[in-house]
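Internal tracking record. Fields below are filled automatically when a chain is submitted to the structure queue. Please do not edit lines marked as system-generated. If the sequence contains nonstandard residues, flag them in the REMARKS field before resubmitting.
Queue: standard
Priority: normal
Entity type: single polypeptide chain
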Amino acid sequence: MDGLRDPRDPPCDVFLTGTVFLDIIFTGLDSAPVRGTESWARGMGSSPGGVANMATALARLGLHTSLAAAFGDDHYGEYCWDALEQGEGIDLSLSRTVRGWHSPVTVSMAYEGERTMVTHGHEAPHELSAPSCPPRARAAVASLEPGRPEAWIADAARSGSRIFADVGWDDSGRWDLAALADLAHCEAFLPNAAEAMRYTRTDCPRAAARALAEKVPLAVVTLGSEGAYAVDAATGETADVPAIAVEALDPTGAGDVFVAGFVTGTLAGWPLADRLAFAGLTAALSVQEFGGSLSAPGWAEIASWWERVRTLPDQDPAALRRYAFLSALLPGPARTWPLRRALPTLGFRPPS
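SYSTEM-GENERATED OUTPUT FOLLOWS
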């Protein structure tokens, strides 16, 4: 990525803000827990979650990432801060530790390709978790909330940041696009299919993407196991890229990793279809490990996948051509497949 930066670019590639959770993930469950019984999981992991998923995915793809977040004044918060700053190289100079505030915690149980989550936490003081003045950055990633505009998004757009946004589930049930005031500042909007269809009152994800392209320059709708579809409003170009079939261990954070891959490809100036393919690949690689942040792939993992997939028998030549653009990008030689990054605990003590 260093070779693609302009000397006039700001030192920060991507800025984002949000809530950091401590995620505790149980995997290897044969079925959903049954009331009144004890279920044993064959695997577990702990990692920073929430906005940390996106920040880690961006950093592992080589983007200089700045995160503004509140961290709890407890061991959980200390672990998350250290994992992000020391472990991933994320700039936390705009983040703050909030005295007397404990870290939000999410327990996630992954089974049958899905997950069930239980979360506990209290909202941090807004002035300590959202920046009054975002840093100059090539791009910013925002999570839009209906009826709740964020001043920093408009400020970032005015300073030249390219805004990429996703959106959460609208618990009010109104699904009103007009309530997403910050959409006007966005270059790209990346909802999933269910969200996109509800916001556009359509019954087809591709029709939803076309409708969203009337509101935002670039509409990207993720289709789960079917891949992703995008419409460029400026050029009229569309791209439809199928997903990669993988055996999913834990889908936590896959949407965040998809957005990170798409932002990376956009800042690198790749064609729209290549950006979709790369984003889908990074998301697919992430679900093969537990944890939303620790499972995010870096270039070594992507290179290992590309080296391995070309040696497998009965590969579809057309599918391999879809990813041929990776050959000129990837480092070599790759590490041995399969790769393991996530640790199943808060962190071992260093050897004495």
